[in-house]
Amino acid sequence: MLEDYNSAVGVMLGMKTPRRLMDDGNYTNEEYKTLWISFKNGTLQPIIEKNNIIFPRMSGIWSISSEIINNDINHHIEYLTAKPLDGREEDQLLERETTNVYKNINFVSNDYISIEKYEGDNFKNKFPIYQTVPIDNINSRNGLNIEEIYNIDSKEKYKKEFNQTIDTLPDEKKNLLDININYSNFTIKRIEGKWSLVGNIPAIDNNNDGIEYRISISPSKKILNYDTLLVSWRDLIDDFPFIKDIYTAPTGRIAIIVFSDKISVYEMEDRNIKGSPLMNIQLSDGEEVIMAEWASGSYVDSWAKAFKDGKQTSMEDE
Predict the structure, then answer these.
(1) pLDDT confidence of 318, banded at 50, 70, 90?
(2) In the chain, % of residues over pLDDT 90
(3) What DSSP assignment string belongs to 131-154?
(4) What is the pLDDT of residue 2?
(5) Dist CA 307 CA 282 (whole Å)
(6) DSSP-derived 3-state class of residue 167
(7) If phi over 0 gives left and psi between -120 and 50 gives alpha, with beta otherwise, what is residue 183?
(8) What is the DSSP annotation of 75-141?
(9) What's residue 72's pLDDT?
(10) How would you label 81-105 residue by residue, b for 16+ Cβ within 10 Å and e otherwise?
């Protein structure tokens, strides 16, 4: 048993619903919400959701929302707003944009956010720019370079894996790509039950697809406090052949398993998943997880207060 197995445990699960193509040829906006899933006194508590991304910081509970403005020359400009839930206003530094800007959120932690971005006049739901930026400078035009988050050795690994990816491509594909290395063109995505750094080699014409590649640098404690999977991914594939992702509580008490159409909440014991799911939560088409922030003990009640005016999700018992 893990040390705090019997204590209360909860997770803020950030969700996004991706854009979809409409009949008029335009795309919808990405939509974000947060689920509060908690287990207390041996029982799964009512699962609550709120709009936007709700997440914890050292200074309290904050929210991130996606906003859209049209400037004086009628550009579509998406930007992000990060502020405390207690009503304090934070300065939002927005640089003047001279073109359309579209942003999708890929990952959120206490102090950092990873996004993908398109800048231009012919948006086709493709995102050549990857960025990781501080929450406190959430609309920064430029993402952090890899050595600003890690150390100088990470830059060499980044360069090596960038070049290895280029070397595996046929010449006809290379000729379509911008192969000048950009040490800030990375984001964080979920791969086989772990948050992973993912780089992007963009196409010369940014309306075409670039090449994604995995960077073998684990997100540091500076980026991510907890990302431990208490069960073997290989065993999970055998037991749940349609699994897309899983999150396990630091206490070892519950597991959140993500399928293409639902999230299932399971109880755990001795690092094993027990029986049938305690609850299934239905997902909309393409909906995915972009954040998992865990609390245990007394923090569970204090975090739950952030969801007191939220609504209960659509759920069904197994």
Answers:
(1) very low
(2) 81
(3) EEEEGGGTT-SSPPPHHHHS-HHH
(4) 59
(5) 19
(6) helix
(7) alpha
(8) -EEEEEEEEETTS-------PPPSSEEEEEEEEE-SSEEEEEEEEES---S---EEEEEEGGGTT-S
(9) 58
(10) ebeeeeeeeeeeeeeebeebbbbbb
Report residue 51 as tokens.
């709009």
For residue 86, the one-letter residue type is: D
Please return the burial class of 44, using the count of CB atoms within 10 Å of its CB with bins 0-12, 13-18 and 19+: middle
pLDDT tens, residue by residue, 5-39? 999 999 999 999 999 999 998 999 999 999 999 99
Positive or negative CA dihedral for 119, 125, 130, 136? positive
Residue 174, exposed/middle/buried by CB under 10 A (0-12, 13-18, 19+)?
middle
For residue 171, which amino acid is it?
Answer: D
Cα 134 to Cα 138: distance, rounded to the nearest angstrom:
6
Burial letters 224-250, b for 16+ CB under 10 A, else e: beebeebbeeeebeeeeeebbbbbbbb
Encoded tokens for 57: 């910081």
Joined together, the tokens standing for residue 308 give 């007191």
C-beta separation of 228 from 219 below 8 A: no
What is the length of the chain? 318
Residue reference for tokens 């699960």: 13
**H or E element in which residue 278 lies:** none
